[in-house]
Amino acid sequence: MPNKMDELQDFAQNDAPIFSNQSSEQNGSSQKDWTVLIVDDEPDVHQATELALRRFVFKGKGLRFLSAYSAEEAKELLHQQKHNIAVILLDVVMEENDSGLKLIEFIRNELDDQLVRIILRTGQPGQSPAKEVIVKYEINDYKLKSELTAERLFATLVTAIRAYDDLCALEMNRQELAKIYAELKSTEQALKHQETYLRQIIDINPHFVFAKDREGRFTLANKAFAEAYGTTVDEVIGKTDSDFNPHTSLVERYNRDDFQVIESGQDLFIAEEQVVNIKGQSLWRKTVKRPILDDKGQPFQVLGVATDITELKTTELALRESEERLRTFVGALPDITFIQDENGLYVEVLAAEHNPLYNGAVELLKGKYVYEVMPPDKAELFLKVIRTTLETGQPQVVEYELDTPLGRVWFEGRTSPIRSYDDEPRRVVWLTRDINDHKRLEQQVQQSLDRREQQIRVATQIAQETATATQLDDLYRKVVAQIKEQFGFYHVELYRHETEMKMLPLVAGYGEIGQQM
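Above: the chain's sequence. Below: its structure in token form.
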């Protein structure tokens, strides 16, 4: 029959741990055996203990004994083992009566080893009463050497090692949980930091940023969007457009667009839309809406970014009105206007469409340089006028004659500088006016003046020549001779002025041409 020792051995072999079978491998150490430290100043106690426990096996692992014969030796071994000792069989009285008790304080407080199981063994119970020691010191068992038989020692050690193994498993789990908690905390902090970072990004964005679920509730909004509704970001979350916007038609349009994006899973781009804010002001926005996908890739929310383009739209409308006024003004002009840069490039050609020179001028000039389309002398003249205008900042006037589809035409050019920016060539506006009729009239007037001057000159000369004439025939000959010399023809009628201011014909003579002056 098996003895008591064999029964205890079977109990130790078949004992199942509280935690998984991996716990002893992970925490009990990678050693093959459980480490037991015997601290006693009597060598016989060491020998007897090792002998009594020589067949000990628990969870497939035997025992490895370490021996210390004083508290100081025990401290050195404890430092060397670094929390790898499972059980300490500790004597109380060694160098001093309380050496063992002081060693307990060293282990628990200085080494901070809370896992090792300490079994206090004493041969002098009077020195350290059990109740007082158990209450005051962190020990796990208190035994008298005289009562600690082999069976009891075996059972005590099994209990201690089981507790140590369970504590190691708990410690391992605690460390794993602490690690997981630290990772979660780090992840949480990273997410919080990321959320703060993203919040700063979307709040500094002047555009409206928002997200909604299928029910139209806001799940995200930036500061600009909330302020447009006259509220805060926190107040927007969980609400719908209808909670803030009194314009039912707009809210219905928003909801319809949002539903379309979520259902189709496709982006929606709205180039421009006119909306009315809570103050009743008419605004223009450009909006992009995109579906937000869940972990299965299915749309479940809509993300929107709306850009306020009111200022741009206002500028666009003002520009359109300005262009319309310019077209009206240009249409009223009888002639052509050019925009030219400092290098003589025809940037723009403006004129009324009914102007017969307009189409030809646009095709011939726009986008070309003056020296590409004008005779060299005219190109040089035009560049000189342009640069003088830019250098002086004063308008310039020049007259010139050009060959056109309508023939040779005289023009008057008036230039004025245009305000330019640093990255643009300087420009002038060149207003061209057709002065052909004016020039023709001017020439006719000049010819008439020249003829009148010539007539006066001839009459003066005739008067001087005829002053010496003594006879009428002589006078006639002299007059005819002067007229033929000056004009190549003659038709002469001579009159005499009487005292009564009457003119009486004296003689009339006709030359071969017979043209009257």
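The longest strand covers residues 282-293.
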